Amino acid sequence: MMQDAPQPPLPFMKMHGLGNDFVVIDARQTSMAMTAPLAALLADRHRGVGFDQLAVIGSDPEADLSLAFYNADGSVSAACGNATRCVARHEMARTGKTTLTIRTERGLLDAVDAGHGLTAVNMGRPQLDWRDIPLAREVDTLSLPIDGTPVATGMGNPHCTFFVADAEAVDLAARGPEIEHHPLFPQRTNVQFAHVIRPDHLRMRVWERGTGITLASGSSSCAVAVAAARRGLTGRTVTIALDGGTITVDWRADGVWMTGPTAHVFDGMLTAEFLEAAP
Predict the structure, then answer these.
(1) Where are the beta strands (DSSP E) in 27-150?
(2) Domain at 151-253, CATH from 3.30.1780.10, 3.40.50.970, 3.90.1150.10, 3.10.310.10
(3) pLDDT tens, 211-228?
C-alpha cells in the first residue's frame, strides 16, 4: 500500500506596516491550500506564529500577483491595505519593478514605490451606498442610527467610524466588539474612533473585525479619511496618527491612495509536525 507523502515544511514571511503585523505565504511556491482552521492556528501568538492578518500570494494572468487575506479568527477579508503594501514592497525588491498590479477581491489594485522607503497602494474607490458596504437596511451612511452617529464606509470590507472629542479616552476593548457585531452590519464591521488634530491631521484607534485591537489598519485608515472628508472635517489628503505610527491617505478621483512604511521582519519555516497537527 502506498503511503501519503509526508507534508513538507512551509516557508513564510513575517511583516508589518506600522505594527499591523502579518504572516505572508507565497502560494506560488507550494501546492498546499490554506484553510480557515489553519489560518486561525497560525494566528495564535502562543501556539502558532501570530498575526493580525494572513496574506496568501498567488498568481494571476492579468496582474503581477494576487492576494487573499484571512483575519486572526480564520475568517476571510476582501481587503488589507497594510499587508498589500508589505507584499508590494517585497515583490518590488524581488523583481526590481517600481509599479505593480495586484489582484484582490476588491479588483485590480495599483502599487507604486513612493520613494524614501515608502510604498503606496490605491485601495480603490470607496463604497458609499448602504447596499455595497453592506448594511442590513437603507440608512444615511453619513449618519448611522447608532449612538454617536458614526459614518459607514466600504473599502472592500465594512467600516464604522466614530468622530469623538478624544480617541484616547474611548474604551476600545469594550466598544469595539459591541459595534463589530451590531445588527446593522450583516458581515460584521471594522470599528474606528478618531478625532481631528488639524484639518489635515487625524488621530485614530481601531478595532478590526475578526482580530480585535490592532496598532494600525490600512483599510480603516482609508475609511476614516473618506468619512472625515465627507463630514467636512478635513480635506481629501490627511495624515493619520495610529497607535503604531503615521500613514498618509489621499482620496483621489481614481481611488483612495495610502502611503507609508513597511517592514520585512524575518523568514521562517512551518514544520511538518505543525502542519500535520492543524485541523
Answers:
(1) 53-58, 65-71, 76-77, 99-104, 107-115, 118-122
(2) 3.10.310.10
(3) 999 999 999 999 999 999
